Amino acid sequence: MQTILLTGITGYIAKHIAAQLLDAGYAVRGSMRSMKRVQEVNAAIAIGVSDPSVLTRLSFCELDLSKDIGWNNAAMGVDAIIHTASPFPMTAPKDENELIKPAVDGMMRAIKAAAEAQVDRVIITSSTAAISGSPLPQGKEAYDEADWTNTEEKGVGAYAKSKTLAERAAWDFAETQAPQIKLTSINPGFVLGAPLDTQYGTSVAVIERILRGKDPIVPDIGWNSVGVKDVAALHVKALQDDGSIGQRIMGVDRFVAFVELAEWIKADYPNRRIATKVAPHALIKALGLFDPAVREITSQLGVVQKADNAKATELLGRELSDVKESVLETARYLVEKEIV
């Protein structure tokens, strides 16, 4: 039986990865910043597995992206590392290094621990933000894994910089200092789908915001989107398929506009006050002068990005799931749990 060190197991995506790894017969050693969350995370993953008995193969360790302590010990005796841990806030911090530094430092701690412990298989969770944060090269119609976000370009946000710089650091280290490491990067888009507990991240919070009817109008933005179960499956399949070694694999179903999300949810909950009118660009830009969260999206207004998911479909052996179902699944979870 293979043992996988899964960093950031408290995360929305990571809990789904853990459940699928356990169902696939692996043992999972999950890292978290505080062991006080063991019971909470164990209970969440129990919801995602097909048989509760597999939880006997789940263990935990304490790691922090910003501290050296524990990393080498955590990596000892494992067969592979899946590194998911990275900050993803709703709004950008005042100092972008609050995002960039822990993302890059955590990535380097994970991959150096792999090298030190002679773990030669590493899968990292990056993002489409590391691919599509810059305009498409001239003549190209869709982003693919050959594209990289130019972090020096004006308008590139802190999150995109953090994911790009962290991923580049991993590839550079593997190439120049640890060529024995077989690296794969999974680059999901905007991830949606029912969480396994109420400790979820920014993407699910967007659906929560729509359901709460907090906004009278919606911005003209959108995201290359994907279901969380597909993202987890890509990590597990990459682990099992040597053809993924040395590859970046973008996890995207399709581009979805914010207004589409709102319309789908409104159709499911017609009695809720959910905005489906698109705001003029000028209004959003004006609001961005006073609201940092709004300011963060102004560069995305009216932009429709296409992404080539051929590598992901080849790895999965099927098309990615319709993201609309993941959106509605997310909304139903939030309503059924009386979160909104």
UniProtKB/TrEMBL annotation:
Residue ranges annotated for the NAD-dependent epimerase/dehydratase domain, each copy included: 4-241
Keyword DNA-binding appears in the UniProt entry: no
Alphabetized SUPFAM superfamilies for the sequence: NAD(P)-binding Rossmann-fold domains
Coiled-coil ranges per UniProt: none
Residues annotated as transmembrane: none
Protein keywords: Oxidoreductase
Domain of life: Bacteria
Listed GO MF terms: oxidoreductase activity, acting on the CH-OH group of donors, NAD or NADP as acceptor
One of the Pfam families matching this protein, by short name: Epimerase
Family to which the UniProt record says this protein belongs: Belongs to the NAD(P)-dependent epimerase/dehydratase family. Dihydroflavonol-4-reductase subfamily.
Name of this protein: Dihydroflavonol-4-reductase
Organism: Cognatiyoonia sediminum
Lineage: Bacteria, Pseudomonadati, Pseudomonadota, Alphaproteobacteria, Rhodobacterales
